[in-house]
Amino acid sequence: MTEEVLPGATYVRSDRSFVDDLKAFDQEAWGQVYDQHFQSLFFYALSRVGDRSEAEEQAAQVLEEALRGIGRYQERGVPFRAWLFRIARNVVSDHIKRRQRERGLSASDPDQTSFESEVDFQLSLQRALRHLSEEQRQIVVLRFVNDLPLKECAQAMGKSLSAIKSLQNRGFERLREYFEKEQRS
To answer: The pTM is what?
Structure first.
């Protein structure tokens, strides 16, 4: 059982104890989920949808889905955070598909709107990530924007560790080629 120190908490608790509190709909526990994960869920969604307000909606929807689905969560050695990002992957993918149908947009052509300065980095990353496959993009975002370890990425994406490493390596190679081309231009 993994032990973690929760921000704002002066004690250490186990994932199982924390999940039990979540299943009991403890407001403090859900507040900690929001405090710990909303920002990374937002940046994950932003990197995929390209629009700040849509990303905020998607991050909020992930937390709603987690709240609705917490009763079905079972401790299987998968960190709670990986479970959240699996929900995020599904919610955002569904949103992109819906948006494609409604607007006729391709999944790799997010809206180009102006953003506040706090997301400038995300926009630069988004431009570079468009040159990756959808799975390569997801692994790069999970690993390096959301700081998930390889094992949690594998769990969140439902893939083996070796498949995740391969996707990451191929993604890095494509990014290297993209940046070399940009430098020459």
So the answer is: 0.55
